[in-house]
From TrEMBL, chain B:
PANTHER family: CONSERVED COMPONENT OF ABC TRANSPORTER FOR NATURAL AMINO ACIDS-RELATED, HIGH-AFFINITY BRANCHED-CHAIN AMINO ACID TRANSPORT ATP-BINDING PROTEIN
Record flagged with keyword Nucleotide-binding: yes
Keywords: ATP-binding, Nucleotide-binding, Transport
Highest taxon of source: Bacteria
Residue span(s) of domain ABC transporter: 5-246
Entry protein name: Urea ABC transporter ATP-binding protein UrtD
Gene Ontology CC terms, in alphabetical order: plasma membrane
InterPro entries, per the entry: AAA+_ATPase, ABC_AA/LPS_Transport, ABC_transporter-like_ATP-bd, ABC_transptr_urea_ATP-bd_UrtD, P-loop_NTPase
MF (Gene Ontology): ATP binding; ATP hydrolysis activity
Coiled coil: none
Organism annotation: Rhodosalinus sediminis
Lineage of producing organism: Bacteria, Pseudomonadati, Pseudomonadota, Alphaproteobacteria, Rhodobacterales
Gene3D superfamilies: P-loop containing nucleotide triphosphate hydrolases (3.40.50.300)
SUPFAM superfamilies linked to this entry: P-loop containing nucleoside triphosphate hydrolases
Length: 420, 246
């Protein structure tokens, strides 16, 4: 075999050929970033408030986790109701460092005025009391062992969701649990995790969660406007990288095999592919990406608590992907951006109430009903979701051909078109 | 001809129903073998056991020169050992192109990280072209497999099997849904493959089996009723009684 003698084409070219959406997506994302830069408080006219920049940055993170969900659900066929738990774990991992490092600075400042310089142990105790006083503890739990190291906590952002997904996936896939049972299992995992975190002795401050995450330790001098645009850029870069990564994974032979597993996993086994390894690979990879998305999201949100990991969050994620159109990467992005922004508009009181005379529809209460109905309608009547609109546009853009159709790529017959 | 697959003393019970009862079959390499039998004779269960889908209660299934046992292996490991299977109902990946279906079946490394970085070599492309030519789907490579006719899907599945380059092919009713000309093509193809490999054909159609001109194993109630040439088994009193006579 002349494998070595093969002229190798660059991966990027092949990737773009296989996925025309990649170039479009990156271009639109770049334009969006330019627009936001021009309007942001720190870098431009200030037409967009700092909180708006944070909302947009958070939305980009949600788009990233939706991408991961689309790959695991739309491409691989596993309706995971646990990916927002991985997202939350990424948030907790970075939140621990943010909280520790900031508290350490505050404690150091207050103890600096003491007559006798404090010992390291005293400082440690003071930090622990400061952080855990709210749950009646003054000791650091074991899981905070690395909280003083940014590098180690960043490693945790990847390692904790990754390991959980690896172990959970290994147990679930090897016993060949599929379909709705697998979904229920992932939901059970999510529920167990969030219930555990609600406990005060979970070591993560129970239902108080971690707060003050928007304040970056040592960067008090930098205003939130600058911090917000920096996080916005980081989120956009992560989304772009995630899109490229997943476009690569879902194209080529890997994409072929994982879609084949979605459609008929027994048949794939008889082709010699170890289906469980593929599922585990996709499940773990997407969990890691979800963790990274969460680590970018929560410093912008400022607070994380166990409710963020509750199963309902993962169900929302599935709804976004379904409405956006699963099985296509841009569909997930459209769905997450559209629905989450719309959701904050409705629940934030932006939508005007509808007065029906006998009853007033308050959108803060009725938004979820509207979302539920649109989810059902999308599933029933537009299974391709919002992304399906792109197909309609593409079909319209394709030149209408008249006259003799002539030989076409893949066509075997010649036939007459409608008269000119 | 050396023995490639040896099934000996295998029994399987499903909810008290004995689907396979002390079954013993030997397949050589190369060999073309037809397995016939009435519905419920255990033909499909026999294939399920060999391919690892069903675990037998008792008995042994050994494979290859080193006589390794297939019973401890997963379906995918058995497929990688070189056993390919074609299902009765054509099962191709309808959402994907004919080309992707064949590319997935090519005999390459199946490990996820190898598949992730896999790129089609010239040898792969040539192999796909060769198989497509053999199954008459060259002009359809770019089409989604779901658009193919029933017969073409049968061919595609045979093509996927060829691309796998197995040592043993288990083929379940290959001629179902084919035109007479296609059946003839199938017979030729199976004979040609069987010159270098082991091929086991499960078939209902006696005429088709006769044209294969190979050793025939007749199954009945989960065990071998008769074995030999088509003329030998069709002359067998018992076979006539349980199968042909009806």
């Amino acid at each position: 075999m002349s494998v070595a003698a093969m002229p190798s084409r660059p991966v990027r070219k092949r990737l773009l050929e296989a996925n025309p959406s990649v170039a479009w997506f990156l271009a639109i994302l770049a334009l969006f970033c330019l627009g936001v830069t021009a309007l942001a408080e720190a870098t431009g006219t200030g037409a967009l408030s700092t909180s708006m920049i944070k909302t947009l940055g958070k939305t980009l993170c949600l788009c990233l986790v939706a991408l991961a969900m689309d790959v695991v659900w739309g491409y691989q066929g596993i309706l995971s109701l646990g990916h927002m738990a991985f997202f939350g774990l990424g948030g907790y991992a970075i939140g621990m460092w943010l909280m520790y490092a900031r508290t350490e600075i505050i404690v150091a400042e207050s103890l600096a005025e003491a007559a006798i310089p404090p010992t390291p142990a005293e400082i440690e105790d003071a930090i622990a009391t400061q952080i855990f006083g709210v749950v009646g503890s003054d000791q650091f739990p074991a899981i905070w062992a690395f909280a003083d190291s940014l590098v180690l906590q960043l490693a945790m952002v990847v390692a904790v969701p990754g390991l959980l997904a690896l172990v959970f996936g290994w147990l679930a896939f090897r016993s060949r649990v599929t379909g709705v049972y697998l979904s229920i299992l992932t939901q059970a995992m999510t529920l167990a995790l969030s219930l555990y975190l609600f406990q005060n002795d979970s070591g993560l401050r129970g239902n108080n969660g971690l707060s003050g995450l928007q304040n970056l330790p040592g960067l008090d001098a930098v205003d939130q406007a600058t911090v917000s645009i920096a996080f916005f850029y980081a989120s956009a870069a992560a989304l772009a990288a995630g899109y490229l990564l997943f476009a690569w994974v879902t194209s080529g032979k890997m994409g072929s095999v994982i879609r084949a597993i979605r459609d008929d996993e027994a048949r794939v086994r008889f082709l010699g592919y170890h289906v469980e390894s593929y599922k585990l690979f996709v499940f773990t990879l997407t969990a890691v990406v979800a963790g990274i998305a969460g680590a970018l999201y929560y410093p912008q949100a400022g607070i994380i608590n166990p409710a963020e990991l509750a199963p309902i969050a993962s169900i929302y994620l599935a709804v976004w992907v379904a409405i956006g159109g699963r099985g296509r990467l841009y569909g997930a992005v459209i769905g997450a951006a559209f629905v989450s922004l719309l959701s904050s508009w409705f629940t934030g009181g932006g939508a005007p109430d509808v007065d029906l005379g006998v009853y007033t529809i308050r959108w803060t209460d009725w938004w979820l009903v509207l979302l539920g109905v649109s989810f059902v309608l999308t599933t029933l009547y537009a299974p391709k979701g919002l992304g399906g609109l792109i197909d309609v546009i593409e079909a319209r853009r394709a030149r209408r051909r008249v006259g003799d159709y002539g030989p076409d790529k893949g066509a075997l017959r010649r036939e007459e078109g409608p008269p000119q | 001809m050396t023995t490639l697959l040896e099934v000996s003393g295998v029994s399987v019970t499903f909810d008290g129903f004995r689907a396979i009862d002390n079954l013993s079959i030997q397949i050589g390499e190369p060999e073309l073998r037809a397995v016939i039998g009435p519905n419920g004779a255990g033909k499909t269960t026999f294939m399920d056991i060999v391919t690892g889908k069903t675990r037998p209660d008792t008995g042994r299934v050994t494979w290859g020169e080193r006589s390794i046992s297939l019973l401890g292996l997963s379906e995918s490991a058995i497929a990688r050992e070189g056993i390919g299977r074609k299902f009765q109902k054509p099962t191709v990946f309808e959402a994907q192109s004919v080309r992707d279906n064949l590319a997935m079946s090519l005999r390459n490394d199946r490990a996820p990280w190898k598949v992730l970085v896999w790129r089609e070599t010239e040898a792969d492309a040539a192999r796909i072209a060769e198989v497509a030519e053999e199954i008459g789907l060259t002009a359809h490579l770019a089409r989604p497999a779901g658009e193919l006719s029933h017969g073409q899907k049968q061919w595609l599945e045979i093509g996927m099997l060829l691309a796998q380059e197995p040592r043993l092919l288990l083929v379940d009713e290959p001629a179902a849904g084919m035109t007479p000309a296609e059946r003839e093509h199938t017979t030729d193809l199976l004979k040609r493959i069987a010159a270098t490999r082991a091929v086991v054909v499960v078939e209902h159609d006696m005429e088709f089996v006769r044209r294969l001109g190979c050793k025939v194993t007749v199954l009945h109630e989960g065990s071998v009723l008769a074995e030999g040439s088509i003329d030998h088994v069709t002359a067998d009193r018992q076979v006539i009684d349980v199968y042909l006579g009806r």
